[in-house]
Here is the input.
Amino acid sequence: MAHRWTNRLQAADVTPEALWLNRRAVLGGLAGLGLVGAGSARADALEPNAWEDITRYNNYYEFGTDKGDPARNARMLTTAPWTVRIDGLVDRPGDYDFADIMAQMTIEERIYRFRCVEAWSMVVPWNGFELADLLALAGVQAGATHVAFETVLRPDEMPGVRYPVLDWPYVEGLRLDEAMHPLTIMATGIYGRDLPNQNGAPLRLVVPWKYGFKSIKSVVRITLTDKEPPTSWNKANAREYGFYSNVNPEVDHPRWSQATERRIGGGLFSSRVPTLMFNGYAEEVAGLYTGMDLKANF
Ligand SMILES: Nc1nc2c(c(=O)[nH]1)N[C@H]1C(S)=C(S)[C@@H](COP(=O)(O)O)O[C@H]1N2
Ligand SMILES: [Mo]
Here is the structure.
């Protein structure tokens, strides 16, 4: 199938990963010209994980709860055609065709640190566009304060939804200012290739300063609202998973510390590294939470 996106960096499409890594020197130069986004400013400090780690060690419970299940089972998911319903407090509600969305978006490459609540982490070179640009297509109304997201629910293609692990469909939410932040993207690719199904094809949220579970996959609905939306993990266990879910080494999960993380791909005996406040993006996002008690709003 033809690629669904246009990319200034089309060489990445066919470039093996080793060459891609060398290309980072070039990307560093592009960042200065504003051709790659804010998240890439720190690209030099982030060594991306291998394609194999990123695409074979996944959480996507609709396809099973084992880390290897999504890579095994998610091929069943049909991702074209695909529509995203954008509704609620917007000027132009409707079903937006994914191919049409892609034709209107500027695709950038963003290298983001990714930190799971289970205390493992990866660095992923995403391709995608800013969520703010997608929301602009629909026109956010003045009364909106939050954004709700929903994953596709297809029991015929998703063996994991037979089990009531979570209350399906998977749902997530952000405050509007978090959603509009330039670091918040809808990812549509990795390493310049289309997003694999196990990573949330054809489009998934990525919020680099929050725990991985906020990054909802295979999104079919985005609703602008004036209330804090329900989120799957908060519904499953409100004591362990709050609405904000900001990466914060000072706030432990009730059952384990969140002060350190294990880099996936670092080998069996790789040492844990300290977790950074807001996953290393404090300079960019701390201002969103000025005056808030982050222990109470975890
Ligand atoms: N629909 C859906 N989205 C989801 C999940 C899920 O189970 N279902 N898991 C979340 C969790 S816990 C993590 S850590 C990330 C994993 O993303 P990755 O597999 O691309 O690394 O996806 C998040 N998005
Ligand atoms: Mo996670």
Remarks:
- The domain at 78-250+272-289 is CATH 3.90.420.10 (Sulfite Oxidase; Chain A, domain 2).
- Residues 24-32 form the longest helix (9 residues).
- Residues 1-16, 22-44 have pLDDT under 50 and may be disordered.
- The chain has nine helices and twelve strands.
